[in-house]
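User: For a benchmark we're assembling, each entry needs the component sequences followed by a predicted structure for the full assembly. Here are entry 17's components. Please fill in the structure.
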Amino acid sequence: MRHRLKDVAERAGVSVKTVSNVVNGHVHVRPDTRARVEEAIVELNYRPNLSARHLRKGRTGVIALAVPELDIPYFAELARHVVSAAAEHGWTVLIDQTGGRRDQERVLASGITDHLIDGLILSPLALTAADLAGLDGTPMVLLGERIEHCPADRVVIDNVAAAGEITSHLIQLGRRRIAAVGAQRTDEGASARLRLAGYRDALRAAGLGYDQTLVASASAWHRADGAAAVRGLLTSGVRPDAVFCFNDTLALGALRALHEAGLRVPEDVAVAGFDDIEDGRFATPTLSTVAPDKEQVARLAIQLLADRLGGDPTVPARELRAPYRLVFRESTRTR
Amino acid sequence: MRHRLKDVAERAGVSVKTVSNVVNGHVHVRPDTRARVEEAIVELNYRPNLSARHLRKGRTGVIALAVPELDIPYFAELARHVVSAAAEHGWTVLIDQTGGRRDQERVLASGITDHLIDGLILSPLALTAADLAGLDGTPMVLLGERIEHCPADRVVIDNVAAAGEITSHLIQLGRRRIAAVGAQRTDEGASARLRLAGYRDALRAAGLGYDQTLVASASAWHRADGAAAVRGLLTSGVRPDAVFCFNDTLALGALRALHEAGLRVPEDVAVAGFDDIEDGRFATPTLSTVAPDKEQVARLAIQLLADRLGGDPTVPARELRAPYRLVFRESTRTR
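Assistant: Structure for entry 17:
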């Protein structure tokens, strides 16, 4: 026997309209009501004819979040927040990993998957404004400042200011030979360029010179890269009294390399990161960092997408800014 | 002007058949050829009529991976491997987060999303065999040993044996008061039950008694839970000389709590975890652990799904076992 909407409503003790709202992914259903309806759907093995309905409405109830790498904890934590914020709109989130490859990002941005998804939140590493010009694909929100003169909605944080503030904190500790770890070529990543700019701003504001030998590159930003970069600095005879790493995983690798070299943190070398991932709160020493408001980044991105899906697609692109704060822990503690 | 398959083939310098293979997600296309075709698709803004085609074939080219929590690094690392293995079949992976909630897992398993996906890989925390009985939904592969007498294909590792071996390693170091951190109620998680069983087996094999006061519960397995569990043990006057944590994040929290209590690892207390996440390789001290072959778990799961999608759906469910190995690092180093 094939059950109907009416049967589900009866079983769940709600109106047919409410069941319809749940099945259609509407927002204004109380979580306990939603749970009851979902229970009834499972118990009766009710199957709405979704494919047909979605083709009619032109909506799938699914959005995609595309990030370079899920095993960079920042993106995994961000993904959790996006899933939560999307759930409030009744959306399922498809998570995709681009590997930061430009071709992958272009295929996504060009809407090749738009038969599956209603909208896309993309954290690009390699995409350029030219790639986005003239696209009429899936509604899209970009994360980060990778692209100047961005033609799409996006959510950013002020990377230059944040990097400047955490560098100034190291200067205020009395450190003078502050290394920067994570520099990249322009085509590798915008975050690196912006954070390096903030670092230079802070040095300049304090009257400290910019010393290229204190800047270490890292084309990927994993722990191993941070460890290798610090080993490289030490091997070449550079003796920093502080290290600003462009993300926390680099910084956790740096902590390890400093430990192996017999240097104490923060006594010999203070260390700061960027992202405030959970690992840094439990490392020994605990890690000072810039904490972008990841929940807010996710909420703003979802809001932009909802506005775009619900409103006029020709409205000019908007840029929203999420806040950040500095978090001081043991790795920069004063003696 | 609307471009056709032929135009893409011309632009990419390949045959129409090859373009069709790329668009249809076939496996046997060389990566550089695939990239060239994707470039041409983007340049020409070619749009295959995918919805119609998929309805005809009854396939979407998308599979789902549902895990309890993406910000548990084990699941993020596993997700990366699943995305890679799926790409070899031309599949896109939709990643979903269940929060380990039984209702969420049931809705997924019941096939409510089967208009979107061809198959599901599910790592269940709360689902029971009863929930799966009589399901005729989306083809599904389960990860882990949560469900006894499982009616679906699944990939497991031998949790009892692995936990026993890492506990025996602690015993061989001469440790006698070995705490276990991460115990859970039966309805919370099967991994906890199996790893506790392995721990007890090893104690018994060594002629050591089982001491309930050395076992600490943790209903979640994050760093904070591991730190809280160890603080709890120490506060209640329990003085372990080793700690076996049921995953690495618990162990990283335990390392932190021991450090804060002024205890040295491994001199005063040896610590071992489970999962071999990247964090443990860079922690200070580096973390000894059980390393399940996550790449193999992913490959086997994808293979089971491919077999199920390509073959007879009534073939009895299969269980495949992925290997693991022990990794000894500083946290259990002998003096």
